[in-house]
Design a protein that fits this description.
158 residues, mainly alpha, three-stranded antiparallel sheet, 7 helices, 3 strands, globular
Length: 158
Protein backbone atom coordinates (compact mmCIF):
# COMPACT_ATOMS: atom_id res chain seq x y z
CA UNK A 1 0.00 0.00 0.00
CA UNK A 2 1.37 3.46 -0.86
CA UNK A 3 2.46 5.73 1.99
CA UNK A 4 0.00 8.26 3.35
CA UNK A 5 1.05 11.90 3.32
CA UNK A 6 -0.60 14.29 5.78
CA UNK A 7 -0.89 18.06 5.39
CA UNK A 8 -2.91 19.25 8.36
CA UNK A 9 -6.31 17.65 7.89
CA UNK A 10 -5.62 16.65 4.27
CA UNK A 11 -4.53 13.21 3.20
CA UNK A 12 -2.54 12.64 0.02
CA UNK A 13 -1.91 9.21 -1.43
CA UNK A 14 0.21 8.19 -4.41
CA UNK A 15 -2.16 6.44 -6.82
CA UNK A 16 -1.05 2.91 -7.69
CA UNK A 17 -2.85 0.13 -9.52
CA UNK A 18 -3.52 -1.52 -6.14
CA UNK A 19 -4.92 1.70 -4.68
CA UNK A 20 -7.24 2.07 -7.68
CA UNK A 21 -8.45 -1.51 -7.13
CA UNK A 22 -9.05 -0.79 -3.44
CA UNK A 23 -11.06 2.30 -4.31
CA UNK A 24 -13.04 0.57 -7.09
CA UNK A 25 -13.98 -2.39 -4.90
CA UNK A 26 -14.92 0.03 -2.09
CA UNK A 27 -17.18 2.00 -4.42
CA UNK A 28 -18.83 -1.18 -5.71
CA UNK A 29 -19.38 -2.36 -2.12
CA UNK A 30 -20.74 1.08 -1.26
CA UNK A 31 -23.28 0.86 -4.07
CA UNK A 32 -24.32 -2.58 -2.83
CA UNK A 33 -24.69 -1.17 0.69
CA UNK A 34 -26.90 1.69 -0.44
CA UNK A 35 -29.34 -0.49 -2.38
CA UNK A 36 -29.65 -3.15 0.34
CA UNK A 37 -30.80 -1.32 3.48
CA UNK A 38 -32.78 -4.36 4.65
CA UNK A 39 -29.69 -5.88 6.30
CA UNK A 40 -29.44 -4.97 9.97
CA UNK A 41 -25.77 -3.91 9.72
CA UNK A 42 -26.46 -1.59 6.80
CA UNK A 43 -29.65 -0.16 8.31
CA UNK A 44 -27.81 0.56 11.55
CA UNK A 45 -24.86 2.16 9.68
CA UNK A 46 -27.30 4.46 7.90
CA UNK A 47 -29.07 5.29 11.15
CA UNK A 48 -25.74 6.30 12.66
CA UNK A 49 -24.93 8.38 9.54
CA UNK A 50 -21.80 6.35 8.90
CA UNK A 51 -22.37 6.40 5.12
CA UNK A 52 -24.52 8.48 2.76
CA UNK A 53 -25.29 8.06 -0.94
CA UNK A 54 -24.34 11.63 -1.94
CA UNK A 55 -20.90 11.16 -0.43
CA UNK A 56 -20.39 7.94 -2.40
CA UNK A 57 -21.17 9.65 -5.69
CA UNK A 58 -18.84 12.58 -4.91
CA UNK A 59 -16.09 10.19 -3.81
CA UNK A 60 -16.46 8.16 -6.99
CA UNK A 61 -16.23 11.22 -9.24
CA UNK A 62 -13.20 12.54 -7.33
CA UNK A 63 -11.22 9.30 -7.29
CA UNK A 64 -11.82 8.31 -10.92
CA UNK A 65 -10.03 11.46 -12.09
CA UNK A 66 -6.65 10.11 -10.97
CA UNK A 67 -4.39 7.63 -12.70
CA UNK A 68 -1.46 5.58 -11.36
CA UNK A 69 1.57 7.76 -10.81
CA UNK A 70 -0.48 10.78 -9.73
CA UNK A 71 -1.11 11.98 -6.19
CA UNK A 72 -4.72 12.19 -4.95
CA UNK A 73 -5.63 14.42 -2.03
CA UNK A 74 -8.61 14.06 0.25
CA UNK A 75 -10.15 16.74 2.45
CA UNK A 76 -11.09 15.68 5.98
CA UNK A 77 -14.73 14.92 5.05
CA UNK A 78 -13.52 12.60 2.29
CA UNK A 79 -11.06 10.97 4.69
CA UNK A 80 -13.89 10.27 7.10
CA UNK A 81 -16.12 8.92 4.34
CA UNK A 82 -13.37 6.70 2.91
CA UNK A 83 -12.56 5.32 6.35
CA UNK A 84 -16.22 4.55 7.04
CA UNK A 85 -16.66 3.00 3.59
CA UNK A 86 -13.63 0.75 4.10
CA UNK A 87 -14.79 -0.31 7.58
CA UNK A 88 -18.31 -1.09 6.44
CA UNK A 89 -17.17 -2.84 3.25
CA UNK A 90 -14.83 -5.10 5.21
CA UNK A 91 -17.62 -5.99 7.61
CA UNK A 92 -19.91 -6.90 4.73
CA UNK A 93 -17.32 -9.22 3.20
CA UNK A 94 -16.87 -10.95 6.56
CA UNK A 95 -20.51 -11.73 7.37
CA UNK A 96 -23.59 -13.27 5.79
CA UNK A 97 -24.09 -10.15 3.67
CA UNK A 98 -20.84 -11.03 1.88
CA UNK A 99 -22.21 -14.50 1.19
CA UNK A 100 -25.30 -12.93 -0.38
CA UNK A 101 -23.11 -10.55 -2.38
CA UNK A 102 -21.03 -13.47 -3.65
CA UNK A 103 -24.14 -15.44 -4.64
CA UNK A 104 -25.58 -12.42 -6.50
CA UNK A 105 -22.29 -11.73 -8.32
CA UNK A 106 -21.96 -15.36 -9.39
CA UNK A 107 -25.62 -15.57 -10.39
CA UNK A 108 -25.28 -12.39 -12.51
CA UNK A 109 -22.21 -13.85 -14.22
CA UNK A 110 -19.95 -11.07 -12.91
CA UNK A 111 -17.51 -13.56 -11.38
CA UNK A 112 -17.03 -17.12 -10.23
CA UNK A 113 -16.49 -18.37 -6.70
CA UNK A 114 -12.70 -18.64 -7.00
CA UNK A 115 -12.32 -15.12 -8.40
CA UNK A 116 -14.70 -13.65 -5.83
CA UNK A 117 -12.69 -15.24 -3.01
CA UNK A 118 -9.42 -13.98 -4.53
CA UNK A 119 -10.74 -10.42 -4.85
CA UNK A 120 -12.26 -10.48 -1.37
CA UNK A 121 -8.98 -11.70 0.13
CA UNK A 122 -7.01 -9.00 -1.70
CA UNK A 123 -9.50 -6.37 -0.61
CA UNK A 124 -9.53 -7.35 3.05
CA UNK A 125 -5.73 -7.37 3.22
CA UNK A 126 -5.33 -4.01 1.43
CA UNK A 127 -8.22 -2.37 3.28
CA UNK A 128 -6.92 -3.58 6.64
CA UNK A 129 -3.51 -2.04 5.98
CA UNK A 130 -5.03 1.20 4.73
CA UNK A 131 -7.44 1.43 7.67
CA UNK A 132 -4.58 0.94 10.13
CA UNK A 133 -2.52 3.63 8.41
CA UNK A 134 -5.47 6.02 8.52
CA UNK A 135 -6.13 5.21 12.15
CA UNK A 136 -2.49 5.88 13.05
CA UNK A 137 -2.44 9.08 11.01
CA UNK A 138 -5.65 10.62 12.32
CA UNK A 139 -5.68 9.37 15.92
CA UNK A 140 -6.50 12.22 18.24
CA UNK A 141 -8.35 14.29 15.62
CA UNK A 142 -11.80 15.03 17.04
CA UNK A 143 -13.84 14.33 13.88
CA UNK A 144 -11.99 11.09 13.27
CA UNK A 145 -12.40 9.89 16.87
CA UNK A 146 -16.12 10.69 16.64
CA UNK A 147 -16.40 8.45 13.55
CA UNK A 148 -14.44 5.66 15.22
CA UNK A 149 -16.86 5.86 18.16
CA UNK A 150 -19.83 5.50 15.77
CA UNK A 151 -18.21 2.48 14.17
CA UNK A 152 -17.61 0.93 17.59
CA UNK A 153 -21.28 1.59 18.40
CA UNK A 154 -22.20 -0.10 15.10
CA UNK A 155 -20.08 -3.12 16.07
CA UNK A 156 -21.95 -3.47 19.35
CA UNK A 157 -25.43 -3.06 17.88
CA UNK A 158 -25.31 -4.99 14.60
Amino acid sequence: MPPLILYGDKLSVPVTREFKQLVNISIAAGKFILIHPHYTLIREAMRLDVIEDVQLEDFEVHTWQFEPGEIISFEMQEVLFFYALLELSCRIFLCDIGDDLKAMAIENGDTNEEEFCRVRSFYLRQAGDFLQNMKNSFAGKHEFEKLVAKIEQLNMSA
